[in-house]
Design a protein that fits this description.
15 helices; 2 domains; globular; 7-stranded mixed sheet; 474 residues
Amino acid sequence: MIDKRSFYINGAWVSPATARDFDVVNPSNEEPCAIISLGDESDTNAAVVAAKSALPGWSGTDVRDRIALVERIQSEYEKRSDEMAKAISLEMGAPIDMATAQQVGAGRHHIGDFLRAAKDFKFERSLGNDKIIYEAAGVCALITPWNWPMNQVTLKVIPALLAGCTTVLKPSEIAPLSSLLFAEFVHDSGAPAGVFNLVNGDGSGVGTQLCRHPDVDLISFTGSTRAGRLIMANAAETLKRVYTEMGGKGANLVFADADEKAVERGVVHCFNNSGQSCNAPTRMLVERSMYDNAVATAQSVAEDVTIGLAKDSGGHIGPVVSDVQYDKIQKLIQKGIDEGARLVTGGPGLPGNMASGYFVKPTVFADVSNSMTIAREEIFGPVLSIIPFDSEEEAIAIANDTPYGLTNYIQTSDTNRRERLCRKLRSGMVEINGQGGGPGRPFGGMKGSGNAREGGMWGLEEYLEVKAVSGLST
């Protein structure tokens, strides 16, 4: 059993004020694999005090010194990337190959993107006779999820440090091992005491305490829309800046002139990370003339997906993260059946090759109405809903008829249609014909998907205040 009950506060590993043990469960076998502590208000306060005390010194450093620290963190990240992949695979069930290439790779890319953005960013600018100064937003509470641990930790911690902010990280208590390892990277990189702090805890405890704390200036949160609403309400009394990156119910619009791999690509993308991605294209909208062929293709692709243990190599998908998540997905699959969607493949229960673990059958529903629960709610599992449409206008209406607005997808060879659709789809991101986002692009959504824009210069700007100064030259 891995013992990780310490917190990282003010440059040192410290014991919690009150011992509240919490088991981290390996989702492949449902057995505890590590033990951590959940913090209480004393731990939260200690971390915030450390961050507040360190803020004047850190925010006053030259940006080149901040860049140098992040470059040292980058070096530690590279040196111990295999260790990071194993931690992620163990705690949240990503197959080790996927954890190495995608999970760890995401953090690697974000660190590099932010370094490039910071080196190009003008922290002081002239505007006529005025000077515009970008300065640190202050003490930042960073609340990260379990599904893409290093993707989200690096999207928050790295730009905050580069901006001159000091930080308190509260990772998901379900998958904390990777963040504790990241804290080692920061420590070994020589970060000044108090600049980075980590306290484990749950949302109702440490999460709420950070959101209400009068000395926290900014909250950056990634997680469910339900939790995001609570965070915004808790932060309102102290008028904090709050950035949220929340759920999604992405529509993938597949037209009859799409390339022959469009349906296959959409199914594989939906099931990646066992469906546990906020930007997964979980609603496939298919033009009527190719609908039957698309359903058959989706069935074939889903039935070719293999399921295996996280520790094993191979192109399989692993378990979902927890018993809570597994039970939620099972209930929503059954809800789809009960509401009249056509179950094409998959369905409730464990896959035949698994007797335990939180494994979900890759599931495809056809003949889905956009009013059904499986088309409205974020399932966060390997479940695809296929919906037919007859016209471009109908496809747009269905795609936009959702409380979410993170990522939509377009599959068509018609360049004029691509141009029309990308402007009419209500989402923070649109990806066309399988083309993913480039380095440094902003990641974020609209409506119930939140208001953050993480990545590159946009992510850096979220941690900066803008100050206008006049009269310097007189």
